[in-house]
Amino acid sequence: MNTSNARITAIGSYVPKKRLTNNDLEALVDTNDEWIVQRTGIKERRIAADNEYTSDISIKAVENLIERYQKTVDDVDMIIVCTMTPDFKTPSVAALVQAKLGIKNTGAIDLNAACAGFAYGLHVANGLVSAGLHRKVLVIGAETFSKIIDYSDRTTCILFGDGGGAVLVEYDEQQPSFIASHMGTDGILGKNLYCTDLSDSMFGEELPVNGFIAQNGREVYKWAVNTVPKGMEALMGKTELKLDEVDWFVPHSANLRIIESICSRSGLPLERAIYSLEHFGNTSAATIPLSLDKGVREGKIQRDDKLLLYGFGGGLTHAGLLINWSL
Ligand SMILES: CC(C)(COP(=O)(O)OP(=O)(O)OC[C@H]1O[C@@H](n2cnc3c(N)ncnc32)[C@H](O)[C@@H]1OP(=O)(O)O)[C@@H](O)C(=O)NCCC(=O)NCCS
User: Fold this and answer.
1) How do residues 134-178 score in pLDDT, each as one tens digit?
2) Which uninterrupted H or E stretch holds 21?
3) pLDDT > 80? residue 1
4) Quick one: which of 125, 128, 139 has its CA closest to 167?
5) Ligand 1, from 115, 186, 215, 218: best to mutate by most atoms within 8 Å of Cβ?
């Protein structure tokens, strides 16, 4: 177990107004509500306006955090935006957030670990703060997947949506939030979930490329349900805690069937899982903060609850964190 001196002190979130329901998708591709709900558990997702980008969603999530917790972010000294759908290749979303919020003395970086991004972002923030390198880090998970979706591809357009969440991680040696972490990567499987417009082959294989997200859903599914339970076991092995002492499981909200399978393979009751996919779809790096905030707003997640966060996805990579909820 590593020593943490970092505490999560605030959370906020935001989703765009426009809803895209399963019935709406029936007008775009050959699919239907029953198929989508049965295979994924997703009923609708939120879609950013044409002129709404990941930085706009990030800012709104932070504004929500400030409003609810009356925390100033003027003294934030590092901004980490976890995203794979940045407004631009450069400047980073984090630099745009710095500019729009007017934070004076801060570092700013984007972190791309696809759907595992937010778990990685929290891990990095914990490391920076615990090591004494930074005092107050803003970690944002935000995506505008609608901008990289081909709405004529029924294998992907039914899954993804837009949204964002933000937390503050501050120096606190008395009540640290971070208990343990575990992560791993199977880069050789990266070809099963990609987004590029380069025609170069990946690992010597010619893959169809068009700038939109593409995936081999079956392979990603198999990898997730095999990898995550083992990762959870390794994570729990780093602590004195037992899995039945975990109050809430907050996995990446890719697909309800994946979450059900992970729960059943790990021996965790599904009732202890909190997920955001039903109304927001798979929002990649935003799913975990959206789920956390949903749990907080619904009064499920309480102070001192033990949370098991597990992100997984493109890379393929995964990251799990055991957290003592401190709000
Ligand atoms: C995408 C996913 C829902 C597809 O479910 P599946 O059970 O694997 O479905 P398959 O791709 O095998 O397709 C089964 C059939 O449904 C059809 N189908 C695919 N998408 C469809 C859709 N949106 N609506 C209706 N039918 C569809 C297929 O064409 C296929 O038809 P066929 O049997 O006549 O060939 C599932 O593989 C999945 O969730 N994978 C993980 C994806 C994911 O979470 N990615 C992000 C990870 S971070």
Assistant:
1) 999 999 999 999 999 999 999 999 999 999 999 999 999 999 999
2) strand 18-21
3) no
4) 139
5) 218
CB-based contact 285:162 (threshold 8 Å): no
The whole-number average pLDDT for the span 298-314 is 98
- Separation of CA 229 and ligand 1 centre (Å): 22
All domains in the chain, ordered by first residue: 6-171 (3.40.47.10), 178-324 (3.40.47.10)
Residue 126: pLDDT band (50, 70, 90) is: very high
Q: Tokens representing 98? A: 């710095």
Amino acid code (one letter) for 154: R
Which numbered atom of ligand 1 lies nearest the CA of 257?
39
Residue nearest to atom 10 of ligand 1 (CA): 218
User: Beta strand pairing status for 162-171 and 107-111?
Assistant: unpaired
Span 285-295, average pLDDT? 98
Helical packing angle, 117-130 and 287-297, nearest 10°? 80
Kindly state the average pLDDT of the residues 245-273.
Answer: 98
Quickly list DSSP for 61-97.
HHHHHHHHH----TT--EEEEE-SS-SSSSS-HHHHH
Residue 218 has pLDDT above 60, yes or no: yes
Closest by CA to 287, choosing from 296, 274, 300, is 274
Give the Å distance between the CA of 36 and the centre of ligand 1: 9
- The CA distances from residue 145 to 12, 85, 177, in Å, are 20, 6, 30
Residues that are catalytic: 115, 252, 282
Tokens standing for 47?
């879609």
The pLDDT, as a whole number, for residue 2 is 62
Closest residue to atom 30 of ligand 1, CA basis = 155
Mean pLDDT, rounded, for 263-288:
98
Q: Nearest to residue 59, comparing CAs of 166, 147, 168, 170?
A: 166
Average pLDDT estimate for 283-292: 98
- Burial of 305 (C-beta count, 10 Å sphere; 0-12/13-18/19+): middle
